[in-house]
Design a protein that fits this description.
226 residues; mainly beta; three-stranded antiparallel beta sheet; AIM24; AIM24 family protein
Length: 226
């Protein structure tokens, strides 16, 4: 029985966060190294790990969110190994080295609790979306895990004059130092989403990366907020 399943056994721990296959995240938990994770994402754990839904740090930031915006988060504490997943989505692990990343809340799986984070307005898009669009920015020294509906592509904007254009429904994350602006096609009556016929795109320029998934989710990737 064990021999045919040997290839699926957990690998030795080598980092705070790492992939176990393409669709699962493994987190090495230690006392004092707390984690914020999407509610309902825990699929297994070893050791002694406790979970606190909607902790005070999340509630404080959530006051600035409209209904349905942002990811419902739980605080994970303790010692052991924690396994997270999100309906079979691909998992992307990022080690922030004092820099930051701007993430669509629907693609946020987990991040170190000591990182600085909050909901921020996406600059350069207000004239396309009325009151503006909002995203979750995470920065500091630590680990972040994202999800992608399929294997993503990471586009290096390169710092040149050329712009990178992305369908908002396929956008996962980007470097917060990039310049962002909106672009409309001839079907200007549509704003955001797969049903727009690609009528609206986001243009990125500067030095940094953009993470794009091979799926145009029908859910609004960026929330319009009044």
């Amino acid at each position: 029985m064990n021999q045919p399943l040997a290839g699926y056994a957990p690998a030795p721990v080598t980092a705070r966060m790492e992939n176990h296959g393409n669709h699962m995240l493994k987190v090495a938990m230690q006392t004092g190294q707390d984690l914020f994770a999407r509610v309902g994402s825990m699929v297994a754990y070893e050791g002694f790990i406790q979970y606190e839904p909607s902790p005070s740090a999340v509630r404080q930031i959530a006051r600035d969110w409209v209904t349905g915006e942002g990811a419902p988060l739980m605080k994970c504490t303790g010692d052991g190994l924690l396994y997270l997943a999100d309906y079979g989505a691909n998992v992307v692990v990022i080690n922030l080295n004092g820099d930051g990343i701007s993430v669509n809340a629907t693609n946020l799986l987990a991040f170190d609790a000591h990182l600085t984070w909050g909901v921020e307005r996406v600059k350069g898009l207000a004239k396309f979306a009325g009151q503006g669009l909002w995203n979750t920015k995470i920065s500091g020294q630590g680990w972040v895990a994202l999800t992608s509906r399929g294997k993503p592509i990471v586009v290096d904007c390169g710092g040149g004059e050329d712009e990178t254009y992305v369908d908002p429904d396929a956008l996962v994350a980007w470097s917060p130092n990039l310049k962002v602006k909106g672009k409309r096609s001839f079907r200007a009556q549509s704003l955001i989403g797969r049903g727009s016929g690609e009528a609206y795109q986001m243009a990125f320029s500067g030095q940094g990366i953009v993470v794009v998934q091979p799926s145009e989710d029908s859910t609004d990737r960026l929330r319009v907020r009044g």
